[in-house]
Each structure stands twice: as structure tokens, then as C-alpha cells.
Amino acid sequence: MPDATPPPDGRRGPNRALGNPFSSFVNFPGLFVRGLRRLPKDIWRSRFRTLDGLFHIGTAAGGGVLVALFLTEIFFLTQKSWPTITGYGFGFILGTVWNPNPPAPVFGAWPYIVGTLLTSAIAMLLAVPLSLGIAVFLSEEAPSWLRVPLSSLVELLVAVPSVVYGLWGIFVLEPIMRTTIEPDLHMSLGRIPGLGGVFPTPSAGGDVLTASVVLAIMVVPTIAAISRESMRAVPDSQREAVLSLGATRWETTRLGVIPYARSGIIGACILGLGRALGETMAVTMTIGNSNHVPSSLFMPGQTLASAIANEFNNSFSPLERSALIEAGLVLLGITLLVNLVARMLVRGLVGSGSGAAGE
Amino acid sequence: MVEASRDASATALTSTDAQVPEGPARAGKLRTESLDAYFGSKKVLDGISLDFPAHTVTAIIGPSGCGKSTLVRCLNRMHEVTPRATVTGRVTLDGADLYAMEAVTVRRRIGMVFQKPNPFPTMSVYDNVAAGLKLNGERNRHRLDAAVIKSLKGAALWEEVKENIHGPGVRLSGGQQQRLCIARALAVEPEVLLMDEPCSALDPIATAKIEQLIRGLREQYTVVIVTHNMQQAARVAEFTAFLYLGKLIEFGPTDVMFERPKEKLTEDYITGRFG
Question: Residue A205 — pLDDT band, cuts 50, 70, 90?
Fold first, then answer.
């Protein structure tokens, strides 16, 4: 059965299982066909081949449910938002005014799109270095008595509901941001020519930066936990190989551990990014909820997710509902697109310079 | 430089027998003095005093668990990397106490090849070999190129990889990977090369190639090789140390040890009565 054997897949490098959580459904039709081919013509002659074929079909069916769900979701979102898709066209994406009130309702989701991308980008900027630092510490540096409880704590933090982060954001983070961090940023980075508009004098209430910091804090445990896991999976022989060349501990981590765990770390970051893009509750609670494109990081804003959460229960016209559902569709599209771009970027990055991965 | 290494590999290809060098006894390059090693409170090496002469191959043999891997790992301070592993006693390189130096310095002067080939999977053949030099701060492209080629030739791998030197190191066969690891260790120009059962994961043909290589390496390096294969010790090493239960039982020229062992235990082990 030459067609039934997958190619030996050493080339993706280590930690494949961790690295690519989404790739499986792409191969779904192939899996199904493979299962069918494994079914022998005379089904009763070889019991084992039959079982094998059924196993393949069974697992492929599991994947199929996933694909079906995904397609249904897109279909539902498209159908329910058809009035605004046809009514506003690209104006929905590029329009900057969102005003559901009669007599002339306008729906432009651009401020929400900007809010979504901006908060996620800042969150990732803050979260990735911090998470990798935590992961390296937990995996390489921490003494074992500290490693176990601290790792469990990080994993526990992944499971904290986002509304709790939101509350913490409102009552703890926001005052600190307003009274200390934002004035400091204004006085330091805000003095750099050209950045004064980005870091103006702060005012009261939630804003884009506060929401981004909450998001960052929320995704840190996810990225740290998965990265730590993939670093722990690096065999000691790799560390010893670098050490035996006369490397320091940092060099050992940089040359032996991080490259080997690379695909797992990238997978962790993409998962974190997905979480940041779609996070609703904590952002809604801290971003200040304004329907305008934020002119600075200290201005309130809105993300696609927070807009839906804020407006949906207050929406009475069918047209506004349709618009909010379209916002959901746009969010889904952005999430997929950003994931795709991140993957391609990473592939390009990883593909050059090293032969073991990529292609 | 390149010429010299070509000579070395030529020697590797022609010499077939390990010979005990003639002339006066050479000073020990590497010495251990009543070396004890522990994992936690468990003593795994007990009072090892050994003298590894310069430009020779010394084999360490003994049954599984006798401490031979631990012994070589003490020689470049890799033992202490394991949590709760400790060492007492002295190890000297040219008379200087290794445990008074920086571990990083020690490991640059004393290279190591491991039981299982462990090339860096994300790096090309070239980058694998250059890794140690880059760690040492070498950035000059020409010097790197020269050193990589020299090391690959020294490890008798150059002819097999020169077409695809920027291809991934992990695509090589197991034997080639192990020679790649040897090249990687040679690239930093160590004085001593430690090998911890370097052939145990390899087939006989790859093993033969590595053994040939080891015999040539003593021209430039002092080699210490751990092996559980007594024929291998006989083929490659001028001196052999026999360890049993963490103690050094016997040490001497390999042929003497195999033909007229002084200790009953050595004889029993060599003739296959245990181990």
C-alpha cells in the first residue's frame, strides 16, 4: 500500500505534536480516503485489515465533525449577517462610523478591527518575551523544589476565567496604569519626537493600553506553560552537546534548547495570539468601550469581540444584529488570516538558515 | 593547517593496529588522583588514580554500571551537571587542577563525544561543526570555513558531505552523525577528546570507520574512550583501564592487560566469565 503510508516525517523537526495544533484538518479528506482504501475488497477475509480500516474511518469521522462544525459556523454567520453584507459591502470593514440609530444607521467596523489588532499586537509584544523568560527559568534554571510548584501555578493560571482577569484589571491594574505607568510613559517615551501623540497625558477610565496589558497577562500562562513543556521535552543529550563545547548555561539554552523546542514555542505563541484576538470579557471590562478609532494608547477603544459583547443585548433592530454578527464573521476571518500569516512568517523564518525544518 | 589534517586522516586510513609507542614513558597529560564521585550519597567512583599519557588512546572498560561513563564525565566536569552529583579528589590537565578552573574553560580544552550521536537538529552540517567556534566568538567567515573543512576532514567525513555541507546534519546516517559530532568536538581544537561508548549505537561498518578514525586521532589529541566492547579496546587503545564496581582494578598497556592480566578479576572479565 504505497499510497497509504505517510512520508517519514523527520523533517519537521522535534515536537511536531506540539507545534502544529491546527494542521490536521487540512489533511482530512486524505485521511478518509486512506481509511476507505484500507478496507479490503473482501471485507471478511482479513479481520485485521478491516479493523484497521474502521479505525481510520472512525478517527477521520472525528476530524470530519470538526470540519463540519467550522463550515456550519461560517455558514451561519454569513447567513445571519447577509443584510449588512449586501447593504454595506466593503464599507462595513473600512467605515469608521458605527451608529445604529435611525433614521440612517451606519455600520463601519474599522475602529473595532483596529482595536482588535492593536490590543493583540501590544499584548503579544509584552507577553512573548516574558513568557519565554518564564519558560526558560522553569525548564532550565529553577531548582527542582521550585520548579514543580511554580509550573503547576502557571498551568493553574491558564484556567483562570477571563472575567476574573477583567475584575483584576478594573480594580488593580487600571488605577496603577492611570496614576503611575501612563504618566511615566508620557514623561519618558512621550517626549520622543513623534511619539507624543501615542503617549499623551492620560485621562480617567479604561483604555487600549490597559486592555492590552490585561490581555498580555492572560496569555502569558498559556505561552509559558506550553513553551516550558516543549523545552522540558528537549533531551539532555542536546544540552550536554552544547555544554561539552564549553558553553555557558545561557549559551546552552540558546543553542541547544530553544532551537530544538522551536516548533513547540511557535505553536504556543500562535495559541496565545488566538486567545488574545478573541478574548472578550476581560477586554470589554478594561478597554473603555468607545466606538472611535483610538488616537493614542491612552484612549478608550473597542475590539470586535468587546463590541459584540457590549452591543448585542442592546441591539433591537434586526439590521444592528446583522451588523454585529458580521463583526463576528470579520473576527473569525481576522483570526484565521493572522494565524495564516504568522505561520507563513514563521515558516519563512525557520525555513531559511536551517535545513531541519521548513520546506 | 589543511595539509596537516589530510596527513592525519591518511594515517587514520592506513594504520590498522594500535601500537604501544616506543621510547621513554610520556608524562601524563591528564591525571586523576583519588577521584571519588557521588550521585547524592551514593558513591559511584572510589579512589580512582589514573594517568592518561599524551597522544595515546586509553580505553576504559568494565561491566555496565561500573562507573566508566561517570569517570569520563568527571574528566571534563560534565558529571556535576547532573543534579546532586558531586566529585572529590583531583583531576589535573598538564598539572593544573581542573576543578579550580572555570568549567567552561575545561570543556573547551577537553572535548567530548557521546554515546548516541547528538547533532543539533536545526543546524546544517556546516553550522553543527562551526557551533563551538562561534561560541568562542569566531566570526571571520574564512577562518570558520577553514576550520570546518579541517574538522570534517579530521573526522573522515569531508568526502561524504562536501557536496551538501549546508544540508541538515540530521539527514546523515547514524555513523555519519557520530563523525559529525566528532568533527564538532575537534573544531574547537581541544587537547583531549573523551568518547563515551561512541560506537554503541552504530552498525559494524560505521563502527569500523570510527575506530579507524580514533587510531588516527592520537597524532594530535589525547583520547580517552569508554567501551563495553573489549575487542574495540584491543583494536584502538594503547592503554586500558579496567573498572569494577567503581574501583580501578587494573591499568596498563592494552596488550599486557589482555594477554597477562595481573588481577584475577580482570582475567575473569576479559575471558567473559562475568559482565
Answer: confident
Instruction: Give the CATH number of the domain where residue B223 resides.
Output: 3.40.50.300
Q: Can you give the pLDDT at residue B193?
A: 94
- Contact at CB, A354 and B108, closer than 8 angstroms: no
Which residues in chain A have Cβ-Cβ distances shorter than 8 Å to B76? 244
Domain co-membership, A183 together with A46:
no
Which helix H or strand E contains A237, and what residues bound it?
A: helix A236-243
Residues of B with Cβ-Cβ distance to A233 under 8 angstroms: none
Are the C-beta atoms of A266 and A346 separated by less than 8 Å? Answer: yes
Would you say residue B37 has pLDDT above 50?
A: yes
Identify the residue whose cell numbers are 493600553: A209
Asked if A260 lies within 8 A of B120 by C-beta distance, the reply is: yes
Q: How many CA atoms lie within 13 A of A233 on its CB side?
A: 20
Alpha-carbon span B108 to A148, nearest angstrom: 33
- pLDDT digit string, tens, across residues B146-164: 999 999 988 889 989 989 8
Q: Report how far residue A341's alpha carbon sits from residue A331's, in angstroms, rounded to the nearest whole number.
A: 15
How far apart CA B181 and CA A310 sit, in angstroms, is 60
Q: Domain residues for B63?
A: 2-117+192-270
Q: How far is CA A142 from CA A149, A247, B86, in A?
A: 11, 19, 19
**B102-142 pLDDT tens trace:** 999 999 999 999 999 999 998 999 999 999 999 888 889 99
Domain coverage including residue A304? 111-315
Q: Is A244 in Cβ contact with B135 (below 8 Å)?
A: no
Assessment of whether the complete model's pTM goes beyond 0.90: no
**What is the rounded average pLDDT for all residues in chain A?**
84
The answer to whether the CB atoms of B170 and A356 lie below 8 A apart is: yes
Report if residue A345 sits inside a domain.
no
CATH number for position A122: 1.10.3720.10
Q: Residue B170 in contact with residue A12, Cβ under 8 Å? A: no
- DSSP secondary structure letter of residue B26: P
**Residue type at position A127:** A
Q: How confident is the model at residue A19 (pLDDT cuts 50, 70, 90)?
A: very low
Going by their DSSP bridges, the two strands B192-196 and B85-93 should be labelled as unpaired
**Separation of alpha carbons B30 and B224, rounded Å:** 10
Q: Which three cell numbers stand for residue B144?
A: 570558520
Domain count, chain A: 2
**DSSP assignment, residue B115?**
S
User: What ipTM does the predicted assembly reach?
Assistant: 0.84
* Closest residue on chain A to B81 (Cα): A240
| Residue A337: strand pairing partners | none
Contact A285, A292 (CB under 8 A): no
